[in-house]
Amino acid sequence: MRLFRKVHSYDALTQHYGEQYKWMVLCIIGLGTIAGVLCTSSFNVAVPALTRTFHLGQDHVQWAMTAFLAAMTIAMLPAAWLLERFGLRRVFMAALWLLIAASVAGFYAQTFVHVVVARLVQGIAAGVLQPLGIMALMRLFPPNIQGRASGILIVGIAFTPAIAPSISGWMLDEFGWQAIFLLGVPFAFLALIAARIWLPAPRKREVQPFDWSGLGWLSAASIGLIEFVSSLHHSGLIAFWTLGYATLLVVSMTCYIRHARSLPHAIIQLHLFSKPTFSRGTFVAFAYGFGLFASTYLIPVFLQTALSFSATDAGLLLLPSGIALVLTIPFAGQMADKLSPRRITLAGLSIFGASFLVFVFAADTVQYWEIVAATVVGRIGLGMILPALNLATLHEMEPQHLGQSSVVVSYARQLGGVVGVTMMAVFLEWRQEMCGATAAGTFQAYAQGFLLLSVVFVLAIVVAIGMKDARR
């Protein structure tokens, strides 16, 4: 270790550690990403506690999740430029420090506004961390082992939501919802130590100026889309605010398209979408993010609100599905190296979408073992999608465009997640009002929410069918 007390280049570290060094880099980035994912998945079990503590409805409390996801989505956009400008080591460590600071601030939050602000800053840090793993994977590993590398990267990230409901549920019952903010801090500190020791010094290279105008237009469009969905519930379709947010969305996207056509180094270059498989894959990523995040929000709330489980019991019930997810991903990663990633993605989307049908048709009579079986089957489908979707979407892209195209796919997935959580909270509140404040009405509202998730996955399957496989 004496040789590496100071920061060395990637070539020097590769020469010292050999071929295993790229795997070390991938694991360090994965460890930091776990800290960000924990901030995403652990907070869902706190929704009922926050409604009681701050005397708010679900449509207001969901802003703690929406603020995080919106900030995470927007923060992904400059990730590729930051990586080129400052290097992996600096960007990775700065994002981890920001995540730790926001987590500690959230632990001491006294008002719901402080909770939302802490979640927003957490989201910024997690958004920068999120695309780094797939960027490193696509640049460091040859195509014939990218599936296996993707499986190794994702298995740790997937294990996080597998155990997060159980641990966060126990922490909530024992220490209160504030303790959930600290769940990702130990992983962030471990990643910081490993990054300081093993990540390489940044290479000197010329980069284009950052596209601040493009970031502004895309951020405005993202906020317009999210607020338009929220405004449908509290204001109505033809209300001033709803139409205003719709106008903001349309105007911002129009301005960005005009801006990107005239700027060769736009934050998202439009020519990327000239490849049909990439365009379809981006849509599938959006729909997949919608279903994934909306279901991660909906299932714990359903178990606690409709079925009267405690936070701890709800977390324990979801533990078998998490284990199934972790066991599926390495196998699915190896399959993606040998078989068609597109077909694996289609199979995973079908299985994941079908798993919600149990709740659609038997929400009020579903048994404990049926919930366990449905969530296990759904997580098997999810485990098939995770390693294959990026490979199926990005195989057409040139090496110089991998960074930006990886960000686009991650951005689409996260934007789908933000819209999914927002729409599900709004949809559920609306259906509960329409179905009545009775036990039967509550179960009917949740059944319709799960039906919406199944429909979204059907749309994703239809689009994914038209994607093309990579030539091997």
UniProtKB/TrEMBL annotation:
Give the membrane topology: Multi-pass membrane protein
- According to UniProt, the name of this protein is MFS transporter
* UniProt-annotated location(s): Membrane
Entry keyword annotation includes RNA-binding? no
Entry superkingdom: Bacteria
The question of whether Protease is a record keyword is answered with no
Q: Which residues form the Major facilitator superfamily (MFS) profile domain?
A: 25-472
Question: Could you tell me the keywords of this UniProt record?
Answer: Membrane, Transmembrane, Transmembrane helix, Transport
Q: Which Pfam families match?
A: MFS_1 (PF07690)
Membrane spanning residue stretches: 21-43, 63-83, 90-110, 116-137, 149-171, 177-198, 210-232, 238-257, 278-302, 314-332, 344-362, 368-389, 410-428, 448-467
